[in-house]
């Protein structure tokens, strides 16, 4: 099979090459991949630590070529979206059936490939905030891939959504997705919030934590800023209006039900009730510019590469 392998002598440190087909374990299905969706974090955290020749990649969609030997997961011929810690950027992928979501017939594989990390993170992180109906929820990085899904899902759950986007010109887009307010930073937020979904981290994290009211939770899903967080003396102490606050860390591939979540998200997108934002789409054979844009976090949304 062909795969996008790590090669530090190649442009962008990646190139297409022939590699052996994967051999699935009994609990894995073999999936023929037709679309992949790279994430900035793969370049930030995964690429530097793997050897040349490695195949990386978390998000990929395609069709089951061979069902799992243990009888779990979807049957051969089923369109699917898949999640894994590696080996997604290839024509064939051996995937744990617990990390496979079924896709409605006729759905766009490119759209389905955007779901596992971005929509999956948004859905599972918002659940950590508890019931959303009538609550005030702040979402940072709202113009990015995770943020756009989180705005839509939080609004669907009945939350009053405060979206943080550094570019004011994106306010209309975010309001169309369900945001009630759009601000450019913590200074633009008035009043306490019940929950924060923070993907940025860095210096503003302490300010967002300070906005939490009694019983509020901040879920930290990423650290895109690359900066440090400093809490001033007393910032973590409670008072009558700000007690029982929490910062919760997040790892998407923990816990059960990922297959169900991915299947639900796929059905929502296919039914037009959830909108992925594909900022750029192209063929994986000519993807250097697209991969560089992902690596440098220059896209307000997802990139999709189709496997020709």
UniProtKB/TrEMBL annotation:
CDD domains (alphabetical): MDR4
Coiled-coil region: none
GO molecular function terms listed in the Swiss-Prot or TrEMBL record: oxidoreductase activity
Organism domain of life: Bacteria
Residues covered by the Enoyl reductase (ER) domain: 9-305
Family annotation (SUPFAM superfamilies): GroES-like (SSF50129), NAD(P)-binding Rossmann-fold domains (SSF51735)
Protein's recorded name: Zinc-binding dehydrogenase
